[in-house]
Amino acid sequence: MGDRYAAVGLVTVATGPADTMLALNAVALTRGRVFDLGFGSNATPADNVIAWRVARSSSAVAVGAAVTETPLASSDGAPASQLIGISNVTTEPGYEEIFIDIGVNQRASWRWVAAPEGELITPGDAAAAIGIEPDGAGGGQARGYMHWSE
Predict the structure, then answer these.
(1) Global pTM?
(2) Where are the beta strands (DSSP E) in 46-83?
């Protein structure tokens, strides 16, 4: 097992087209394996649904806010992450391969943990990304995280 990292992101939920809350850009010769992710809303509680999509793109995310990747075992002196986290994406890459697509009540949060050997894998290619995007009634912020190994 390689080094493990975390990144968190946020975005204001908009009614389509959705903006990616958190994306993980792949890099050449490094395969990232997303094994844990979660998301929710910190908007004023209401009975609205937010449609959440987790998907892979064949193009990297180019425009958004840089995210600091945090080693999950910092006491081990883990090297800096090779993969690049980006939050609040403003230029969408266009996701082709959808892994998760569900509606969640705005009052709820949702977590996914990979079964053994069931991680979401980034290609060893700099022109790819895995992202989480919310689409909903608008207003309020969506927050979430990804944990991955390299």
Answers:
(1) 0.90
(2) 49-57, 63-66, 70-71
Measure the CA–CA gap between 28 and 102, rounded to whole angstroms. 31
Residue 122 tokens, joined: 């980034």
Q: Which pair of tokens denotes residue 117?
A: 């050997």
Give all strands of the β-sheet with 129-136 in edge-to-edge order: 63-66, 84-91, 22-25, 129-136, 49-57, 95-105
DSSP 117: T
Cβ neighbours of residue 21 under 8 Å, at least 6 residues apart? 9, 10, 11, 39, 87, 88, 89, 131, 132, 133, 134, 142, 143, 144
The Cα–Cα gap between 119 and 106 comes to: 26
pLDDT in tens, 86-126: 999 888 888 899 999 999 988 899 999 999 999 999 988 88
CB 71 within 8 A of CB 5: yes
